[in-house]
Amino acid sequence: MPDLKSQPVAETLDVLGRVCPYPLVLTKKALEKMASGGILKIICDAPASAEDSIPRYAEKQGYEFESVKLEDKGYWELYVKKS
Q1: What is the 3-state secondary structure (H, E, C) of the chain?
Q2: Is 20 a catalytic residue?
Q3: How confident is residue 2, by pLDDT bands cut at 50, 70 and 90?
Q4: At what angle do helices 54-61 and 22-33 cross, to 10 degrees?
Q5: What is the pLDDT, as a whole number, of residue 1?
Q6: pLDDT digits (tens, 9 = 90+) for 22-65
Q7: How far is it, in rounded angstroms, from Cα 59 to Cα 70?
Q8: What gap in Å lies between CA 23 and CA 52, rounded to an integer?
Q9: Which of 6, 17, 52, 80 is spaced 20 to 30 A from 46 at the CA atom?
Q10: What Å distances lie between residue 28 and 2, 7, 63, 70, 76, CA to CA?
Q11: Catalytic residue among 9, 10, 20, 25
């Protein structure tokens, strides 16, 4: 199965500059509106959200999750596939 970042993204959510809990709240809202099988790409620079709250939420929901840390840009690209 190909990794999530190489699949077509249904929606991109930019939460740069936002701190907890906003990235997670906005992620939940975006996923609620998406159809099953859709992939949400989240651009996030808050370590607590990128490394803890969003991955934990995705796991709890049973969604596929992938994180790509872009060191040179100082943010993460998070991919969540809604099941």
Answers
A1: CCCHHHCCCCEEEECCCCCCCHHHHHHHHHHHHCCCCCEEEEEECCHHHHHHHHHHHHHHHCCEEEEEEECCCCEEEEEEECC
A2: yes
A3: low
A4: 30
A5: 46
A6: 999 999 999 999 999 999 999 999 999 999 999 999 999 999 99
A7: 22
A8: 11
A9: 6
A10: 24, 20, 12, 23, 17
A11: 20
The pTM of the full predicted model, rounded to 2 decimals, is 0.94
Are the beta carbons of 22 and 48 closer than 8 angstroms? no
- What pLDDT does residue 38 have? 97
Tokens standing for residue 46: 């808050």
**In the 3-class helix/strand/coil scheme, how is 10-26 assigned residue by residue?**
CEEEECCCCCCCHHHHH
